[in-house]
Amino acid sequence: MPVHCIVPARMGSSRFPGKPLVKIGGKEMIVRTLERALLAGCFERIVCATDSEKIAEVVSNAGFEFLLTGACATGSDRVAEAARALDLDLVVNLQGDEPLVEPSVLCDVARELEAHPECWVTVACPLNPSEAELATVVKVKVRDGLAVDFTRNVKPEEAPSWFQHQGIYAYSRAARDEFSSLPQSPVELERSLEQMRIMGLRPIRIVQSPYPSVSVDVPSDVESVDALLHKR
Fold first, then answer.
1. Using CA atoms, how far apart are residues 170 and 2, in angstroms rounded to an integer?
2. 69 and 176 Cβ atoms separated by less than 8 Å
3. Partners of 24 in the β-ladder
4. What is the pLDDT of residues 156-199, one digit of tens each?
């Protein structure tokens, strides 16, 4: 069964308004992220789902497909709306602030989803102990290949038992529809982590990546990502 990629992007990020259009190496971040999905070579279709006509215009001018959505509580809600409109089943949600994501990891996620369409799939990578208490770096605890908890802060001495979570999800039509039909849970709202809505209802399978996640959460991240891009 074909696997598709939807990249959700919105202008109204609370920590970094207009983030998808920030330029990294002279190119908008949303375009760089879409290009990484294209490099993976494993997706039948790649679509940016956005609430912004400005983002849609940039995406279209770069040669990518877009779909305008309404207001959505989370990226997964936006992906669910777009996938429903496009009548897609298996979808990888690549968050738009992952301009340096490794294409091979996206392929691993797609394969894991094909093998386990009843589950959610996401990615864990090495956690830098110095970022244990950094709230913009999401942590995941893994047991027997499954996520058992997500948080934003852990004590430095507990860091070795946690991984960093990377902004990639994958799910089938049934799993997405279940998620989007549920109200936001208290834990989801408290931690600002959408995956907590489905935790305990469906298994969340983990693809282990050896590559550190390099995402843009706040304006200060742009300079470091730009530097990494030039180094590569």
1. 13
2. no
3. 27
4. 999 999 999 999 999 999 999 999 999 999 999 999 999 999 99
Quote the CA–CA distance of 212 and 126 in Å, as a whole number: 6
Low-confidence winner among 4-8, 153-157, 176-180, 224-228 (lowest mean pLDDT):
224-228
Q: H/E element holding 21? A: none
Average pLDDT of the segment spanning 131-137 = 93
Three-class secondary structure of residue 57 per DSSP: helix
> How far is Cα 69 from Cα 85, in angstroms, rounded to an integer?
9
Q: Return the structure tokens found at 5.
A: 């990629």
DSSP-derived pairing of the beta strands 163-171 and 139-143: antiparallel
How many helices (H) and strands (E) would you count in the chain?
Answer: 7, 11
DSSP 88-145: --EEEEE-TT-TT--HHHHHHHHHHHHH-TTSEEEEEEPPPGGGTT-TTS-EEEEETT
Residues 3/114, Cβ–Cβ less than 8 Å? yes
| Maximal CA-CA distance, the chain | 48
pLDDT-based confidence at residue 232 (cuts at 50, 70, 90) = low
Give all domains of the chain, ordered by start, each with its CATH number. Answer: 3-212 (3.90.550.10)
